[in-house]
Design goal:
Distance between the termini: 47 Å
Strand order of the largest sheet: 5-6-7-3-8-9
Radius of gyration: 24 Å
CATH topology of the largest domain: Rossmann fold
Number of strands: 13
CATH superfamily of the largest domain: P-loop containing nucleotide triphosphate hydrolases
Structural class: alpha/beta
Number of helices: 10
CATH class of the largest domain: Alpha Beta
Helix content: 25-40%
Number of domains: 2
Largest sheet: 6 strands, mixed
Strand content: 25-35%
Length: 299
Amino acid sequence: MIEVRGLTRRYGDVLAVDDLTFTVEPGAVTGFLGPNGAGKSTTMRIVLGLDRATSGTALVGGRAYASFPAPLHEVGALLDPGAVHPGRTGRDHLRIAARTNAIPTRRVDEVIERAGLGQAARRRIKGYSLGMRQRLGIAAALLGDPKVLLFDEPVNGLDLDGVRWIRGLLRQLADEGRTVLVSSHLLSEMQQIADRLVVVGRGKLIADTTTERILGGLGHVRVVSPEAANFEKVLVDKGFVVHRDGEELRVENSGADHVGTVAHESRILLHHLSEVRQSLEDAYLDLTDDSVEYRGVGR
């Protein structure tokens, strides 16, 4: 379990993380989302003891990362796949990490196979593609068979086969009861992988809930009726949030069955009734619209 409580990190006048509180539970894949500059990487670095909090705490299993004598047994992480010695082979990189954390050498071969490195593990890292560096970083994260795993943009540089592999790996790790936190800008992948979402903007918590709830809460029901004006009044009187455009109604945060029941009871003729499910990208843009710090300007 990862517990972040009242976490704040200030760099001079810049407030990178602002009183952030959330929990990442075991047995689920938790997506960590937010615009550039939202504080995601800073938060993950503090969890891993690579940066200090100005105030608040970030604990793994109730302990600070720095208190673990052999941290790879407790926490595995992929933050920067480029932060490796380019002159070493992938296998040597893993063997050194294993030796410094009292991990049996046989475990190196196991994670090489699980990460799909194959013969590439015997080549020098400077010749690796970004995708192979990602696989090496994931192998290193798995080396100590930890219960807690953090991945920052794990699908970067992976081909389609690699993306499918990491998708299955994350699901398997969560199903084994591990705590899995994944930061990514590929929202289509997060929609398929994540059970829960923690969304941040300008260092503050925006949402902490299930993926299903975020998607469902931002969906709507589309209605087409020759009696749209009358039906709008009926729905509003019953507490629905409704937008009308001619004969078409958009009913927010409801289900087609509920809206259809109201139409039947009110003897309203409908020509069309359907639920419109937004994608995670739509939901994310709605949630973070006020928190985007860097925007492009069109011509």
